Amino acid sequence: MKPGNTAVVTGASSGIGRAACLKFVEHGMNVWMVDVDAKELAASQKLAKEKANEHQFVLAEIVDVSDATAVDNLAFQVFEQNGKCHILMNNAGTGLGGGALTTEMETVQNVMAVNTYGPIHGCLSFIPRMKQTGEPGIIINTGSKQGITMPPGNLTYNMSKAALKCYTEGLEHELRNDETCKQLRAALLVPGWV
């Protein structure tokens, strides 16, 4: 977290995402705040801008992370405008779900699309661009303790976060073993109830 570096945070309108954005701003970073909730995102951006100095920018973008094209457009915009991204925080998520025999397949698909494929879309769109800059960086995927402990009650959510855990661990292994990509790391953030 160096002054002048750039962070992109999805799910930035509340909770962990908003708190991360505020912390990044406090450290002098430029921040792209991304969410689907326009009203809350505007309020969060206002808070972040109040903490920013005259050399920083705090931008807000409405992006649905389940849409691969929208995420790729975001990555293009970030790199077109400032050429670098040092922290990619794939934090957007939804807590909806259902049990093993749920018939609400639209909900199941939405949870997987946001919680699992959303971060994957972020990685696929941002990491090749981050790699090209040669700058150090980190990809933070927000998982959940439920993706590890698997408590009964919301199997769909648990599955989405377990898959993200698996993906993130595999990504970190690949980054560590890629001689052309030693400056990038991946980490799984594992919060409890927020």
Report what the structure shows.
The protein has 194 residues and is of the alpha/beta class. The chain is built from six helices and six strands; from the N terminus they run βαβαβαβαβααβ. The chain has a six-stranded parallel sheet, with helices on both faces. Strand 2, helix 2 and strand 3 form a beta-alpha-beta unit. The protein is globular and about 55 Å long. The chain starts with 5 loop residues before the first strand and ends in a 5-residue tail after the last strand. The model has no long low-confidence stretch (mean pLDDT 96).
Per-chain topology:
Elements: E1 6-10, H1 15-26, E2 30-35, H2 38-51, E3 58-62, H3 68-82, E4 87-90, H4 105-133, E5 137-142, H5 146-149, H6 155-176, E6 184-189
